[in-house]
Amino acid sequence: MSHFLNQFATIESFRQGLDQGQFTSREVTETLLKEIEAQSVLNAFIDVQAELSLAQAALADEQIGRGQAGLLAGVPLAHKDVFVTEGWKTTAASKMLANYVSPFDATVVRALADAGTVSLGKLNCDEFAMGSGNEHAAAGPTLNPWDHSVVPGGSSGGSAAAVAAGLVLGATGTDTGGSVRQPAALCGVCGIKPTYGVASRFGMIAYASSLDQAGVFATNAQDLALLLDAISGFDPRDATSVQTCHGVANAAGRILSEYERALKQMPQQKPLAGLRIGVPKEYFGAGLDPKVAQAIEAALAQFEALGAKRVDISLRNTDSAIAAYYVIAPAEASSNLARYDAVRYGHRSEQYNDLEQMTARSRAEGFGAEVRKRIMIGTYVLSHGYYDAYYLQAQRVRRLIAQEFQQAFSSECDVIMGPVNPTVAPPLGVSTKDATAEWLGDIYTLGVNLAGLPAMSVPCGFAPGHQSEALPVGLQIIGNYFDEGRMLAIASSYQQVTNWHRCRAGGGA
Ligand code: GLN
Predict the structure, then answer these.
(1) CA of residue 427 to ligand 1 center, whole Å
(2) Do strands 76-80 and 118-123 pair parallel, antiparallel, or not at all (unpaired)?
């Protein structure tokens, strides 16, 4: 039963198999545990606990047997290792938290468990979600299922790789500056980061709290809608969480939630008639691989064929997003990561003479190089005398960027489209050698987080890599606040007339 999940186009079709008794959730879980083992070279999983997964499968089988199962019952997925999980390890891919097991579940994890999903375990990522290639990870990088010599993208690299390799149907991730969209693009799967506040941050290990947002991965837009429905909603334990979903009953009396409804309401003929797609010229500047640009252009032409209208726009501060983000994110990180003091939990050095030395040595040993660099930058930009010049200035740029997007959405376009990454997946080793290149690669994703907007990545073609003929390219769709339903519907219309999302790593559609 190799690549068992690749036979299902959607979660819905997988569920039919379960409902019709073709297989049980227990059987699927056992198969997938074997496949995860067989594909351990990918290094996508940090922790697998067969008994815990099988217990969730038994629950799903029971619900399905009673005819009381929700849409996600028995659906195999896995969680980025920055979501705390009861039972499984939560390490944030850091030596600092090696062997840490949380006494509670993150809200997102609990919501998906309550929906009946089966977790196959915890997924590799960049340490504390800092990175774009999944190479800054204590247990080494995850490999890209399309070509083991290139990165899967980061920071949620394990999530994208696990979906792309057919090890799960969906995965959670976090996106502080692109960490859902980038790995989704480089691994040829779909990923969405909703509006800031739509999904609870409770139990999500904090990196940069004003930017951090949970998101989901799947192979298609329809599945993203189901998963996003499950993780969104107000949570009193997250002060920045917002209420969004309003269920409405369909003709059969079943409650369709917001995102699912948006998909079902799309007209069949010219579904995108009248839609104005803003295409920022700054997203097609120097540094963009011409072959990636070609794939994006082809996707835009496809949207025009579906009835949409292309509008050229300008987001002049696109470049400045890099500077602003790499001041604000490290500033918040330096504060958030101060909690790892080796007293309450976390790695503790074996050799020290006093408290100060214990903290200093434990932090120096527990954090990897990239995390230490960010803590130092963050501490510097917040320090007396530099605060105004760096941190305050960056906050002003942040406001300009948010205003620029609002300007575009209020008068020029309904959604914005462009590339996610300037290139296809780079070879392993590049991001650790050339830090500037890694940060510059975030150019098209950071602005969205600074503004708090929703954005997604959708597979839209292939371009040559350093040694392979074809690596996946991701199209970015950016929406206005709380416009996830429309974005998913747009992506779904595109996927009804294209096959990119059906191509699987290792061949076959
Ligand atoms: N690449 C960005 C960073 O390194 C974004 C990471 C993220 O979204 N978690 O900070």
Answers:
(1) 18
(2) parallel
Q: Which of 174, 183, 181 is nearest to 203 (CA)?
A: 174
Greatest pairwise CA separation for the chain in angstroms: 74
Is ligand 1 within 6 A of the CB of residue 176? yes
Give me the residue label for tokens 């390890």: 89
The segments of the chain whose pLDDT lies below 70 read 1-2, 245-257, 266-270, 507-509
Question: Which of 81, 82, 125, 126 has the most ligand 1 atoms within 8 A of CB, as the residue to mutate?
Answer: 126
Question: Residue by residue, what is the 3-state secondary structure of 407-445?
Answer: HHHHHCCCEEEEECCCCCCCECCHHHHCHHHHHHCCCCC
pLDDT tens-digit readout, 186-212 = 999 999 999 999 999 999 999 999 999
The CB of 420 under 6 Å from ligand 1? The reply is no
pTM for this one? 0.96
Domain boundaries, the chain: 5-282+412-502
- Under CATH, domain 5-282+412-502 is a member of which superfamily? Amidase signature (AS) domain (3.90.1300.10)
Report the separation in Å between the CA atom of 385 and the middle of ligand 1, taken as the mean of its atom positions: 27
